[in-house]
Amino acid sequence: MALTGSLPAVLPSLGLLDPHRRRDPFTLGVASGDPLPDGVVLWTRLAPDPLEPDGGMDRRSYPVEWEVATDEHFGRVVRRGQATARPELAHTVHVDVRGLAPWRDYHYRFRSGGYVSPVGRTRTAPLPGQLVPELRLAVASCQASWDGWYTAHRDLASRRHDVVLFLGDYIYEFGLDLGVRPEDGDPRNVEPAVSLDDYRRRYAAYKLDRDLQAAHLSAPWIVVPDDHEVTDNWAGDTAPTRGYGASAASRRMPFLLRRAHAFRAYWEHMPLRLAQQPHGADAQLYRRLRYGRLAELSMLDTRQYRDPQVGTDPARLEPVTADEVAADPQRTMMGAAQEAWLLDGLARSDARWNVLGHQTAMSLLDRDPGPGEVVSADGWDGYAGCRDRILGGIAERGVRNVVGLAGDVHRTIVSDLARDAADPDAPSVATEFVGTSISSAGDGVDLDDLGRSYLADNPHMRFGSYQRGYLSCRVTPQLWQTELRVCDRVTVPDGSVTTRATFVVENGSPRVLV
Ligand code: FE
Ligand code: CA
Predict the structure, then answer these.
(1) What is the Cα 82 distance to its own chain's centre?
(2) N or C: the chain end with fewer CB closer than 10 Å?
(3) Domain 135-173+223-229+286-513 grouped into CATH 3.40.50.300
(4) Pick from 242, 363, 357: which is nearest to 302 by CA?
(5) Domain segments of the chain as ranges
(6) Ligand having the closest approach to the CA of 371
């Protein structure tokens, strides 16, 4: 009688039935993101069986304890609390920790069902008025798991970065029945992701990678999605009905419903704040983060508000001529509200470096040797009017030290950005570092035919490389330095990583020194 009346005595034995008390629920690691001067988002997910629906959890909510300490052994815990992992959010946990000190390292971990998570290292941002002597920032994108191992992430994790920008294609939604990894033959990977369960399973499959987990453990991340977090070449409210990301199931589902599933799974699996949580098919993903007076990061969303691409067949997206694009200069890649938000913010900024963190190259990438321009319909070249409003707005407002960071094209492209990019004498108003892919497109080579063609026909382009890797940047008040780290191979798990080149931009001069 005494025992049945004693709730605390009963709960632990009931707990033995909980799925995450039988197996380690922290199979997908931990992450942190979107640092502020006083806080950071901590992330994890309870998933003892991560590739199964619901991650091997049942339909109940579970408490998850979290701790933040100034040392990795948790001798000095400065914040702790309890979050709830709910089944409707795939038992993911997003803790918006506040009350931390500016510009310092912290360590964090979670605890649930008797298990303790791996320990992550994170770092807060400086105070708004603070001009810190140095910011170390990594730039990565495009990690198609079937194309290669995440050797670049292992290297990224081995270096000290204050923050990692991940600029899209964290997952690929389409399906393949072959690839470099042992699990790539799994028939469940062959169909494109369409439902919420499909997208959740895709994130779980990607996040099982130990090198990706190590990169999250090493530093806070700031993430924005590109197309493959939803589907290949989607644009605003539309997506191709044929091609890589399309299937019978995708054609049966209204695109905005698919986008809602994709956005929800993205938010669930990324270290993002509540402000970025989607409402149906809409999510506020463009946002600004600052590193005191050294750097302000404007993170852009060039997918959700864009007009459809020029051309008749979005599933194929054949290159188009610059004249076809120029026919309607009002077309937008960002939407009017985001364009105004970006230019207003840049005009007000008192930061030394004004960073645009976005998806695809803003530099002209003419792929047709000789007179005339043939360009991708999906990149900024396909929205030249919008690009001109941004670069023109930067010039008219006298915004200094604008550095664009992007991904998408699976190659490194370093350029000065001029309003008239086809004119070799046009003045540069900004610089741009387009980072290559972590793994997408396989091993690659230092310079391929398309890279050579780009270099020959685009006078403001300074450098190109077609190997996999990432960018490791060192930012000081006087100098922006970008180091390109490349992998010799990614189709085997033990490739090596070396520095291919280092580029410099000096304070006050919008030109890349190669
Ligand atoms: Fe990609
Ligand atoms: Ca040309």
Answers:
(1) 28
(2) N
(3) no
(4) 357
(5) 135-173+223-229+286-513
(6) 2
- The number of residues making up the chain comes to 514
Instruction: DSSP letter for 238, please.
Output: B
Q: What's the CA-to-centroid distance between 457 and ligand 2, angstroms?
A: 6
3-class DSSP state of 159: coil
Q: What sign has the CA pseudo-torsion 359, 174, 281, 221?
A: negative
d(CA 271, CA 339): 25
Ligand 2 centroid – CA 377 distance (Å): 15
pLDDT digits (tens, 9 = 90+) for 26-70: 999 999 999 999 999 999 999 999 999 899 999 999 999 999 999
User: Rounded to the nearest 5°, which phi and psi values hold at 491?
Assistant: -80, -10
The C-alpha atoms of residue 473 and residue 475 are separated, in whole angstroms, by 6
pLDDT tens digits for range 368-414: 988 899 999 999 999 999 999 999 999 999 999 999 999 999 999 99
- Ligand at minimal distance from the CA of 456 is 2
CA of 441 to the centre of ligand 1 (A): 8
Cβ–Cβ under 8 Å, residues 154 and 180: no
Q: How far is the CA of 363 from the centre of ligand 2 (A)?
A: 14
Could you tell me the maximum CA-CA distance found in the chain, to the nearest angstrom?
A: 91
Helix, strand, coil % (nearest 5) of the chain? 25, 30, 50
Of 102, 37, 90, nearest to 61 (Cα)? Answer: 90
- pLDDT tens-digit readout, 192-246: 999 999 999 999 999 999 999 999 999 999 999 999 999 999 999 999 998 889 9
Q: Which ligand approaches the C-alpha of residue 147 most closely?
A: 1
Centroid of ligand 1 to alpha carbon of 183 (angstroms): 21
